[in-house]
Amino acid sequence: MMTEYRGLLFDLDGTLVDSVADICAAVNHMLLLIGLPSLREDAVRRMIGDGLPKLAERALEAAGGDMSTLAEFTMGVSSYYQEHAADHTACFPNVFATLQYLYERGIRLGVVTNKPVSATRIILRSLELSDFIDVVVGGDSLPVRKPDPAPVIEAVRLLGISPEHILMVGDSAHDVDAAFGAGIKSVAVTYGYHRSPPSSFNADHLIDSFEDLLAIVLQIAPIVPFDKAYTKL
């Protein structure tokens, strides 16, 4: 008998949205200001997943910067990104349609990300996802971030649903580890910003396309062609 899932928690970057262009722009803006070479987008993509402070540290080190200026560099990246978080960021294929479909069928949805809450909400509003999302726990919501399970535990508490009826969906081992620590099952997506093969995460489910969640949560196949049959009204 399959589990009845009543709530879903999602990572943001690399799972719901492709945000690397805006993150890279914020990093390179600050590197340019201090006279350092810019970084390629593929290099910045591999730095994503542990929160902005860690990303800034990796970027400054990769560009050969003075690590004693890290605090100022991090603040500059954060400030610029706050103003440009949704310039080029977009949903991955079928994310909007799938979230809308799940929401309209009574599934409660939340986001658990290592990104600051303010930037997260800017992106969700810009991409018209806010109406579907009941809970947002960000990298600055608690003293710890994923892979620590505390942010997921907090999101579960806010959803008000028993852990056995909630799934965590993400693109990194951090998401799966946090879900395991919080006592909930997990789904790993094979796209995204992972630094190791998703098949190695030991997630309960592995999906290649976001709409494949419907087969797990609602036990139905996606509407075909899903992106054309069920999109923004």
Descriptive report:
- The protein has 2 domains: 7-18 and 89-229, Rossmann fold (3-Layer(aba) Sandwich); 20-84, Putative phosphatase, domain 2 (DNA polymerase, domain 1).
- Strand 6 (166-170), helix 8 and strand 7 (185-189) form a beta-alpha-beta unit.
- The protein has a 6-stranded parallel beta sheet, with helices on both faces.
- With 233 residues, the protein is α/β, with parallel strands linked by helices.
- Helix content is 40%, strand content 12%.
- It is elongated, with a radius of gyration of 18 Å.
Biggest sheet details? 6 strands, parallel
- Overall structural class, as computed from helix and strand content, comes to alpha/beta
What's the helical proportion of residues? 25-40%
Distance between the termini: 35 Å
- The CATH superfamily name of the largest domain is HAD superfamily/HAD-like
If strands are numbered along the chain, what order do they take across the biggest sheet?
5-4-1-6-7-8
- Which outline best applies? elongated
Mean pLDDT: 94
Stretches where pLDDT is under 50 for at least 5 consecutive residues are none
Rg estimate, integer Å = 18 Å
SSE order: EEHHHHEHEHEHEHEEHH
The portion of residues forming beta strands comes to 5-15%
The DSSP helix count reads 10
Number of separate strands = 8
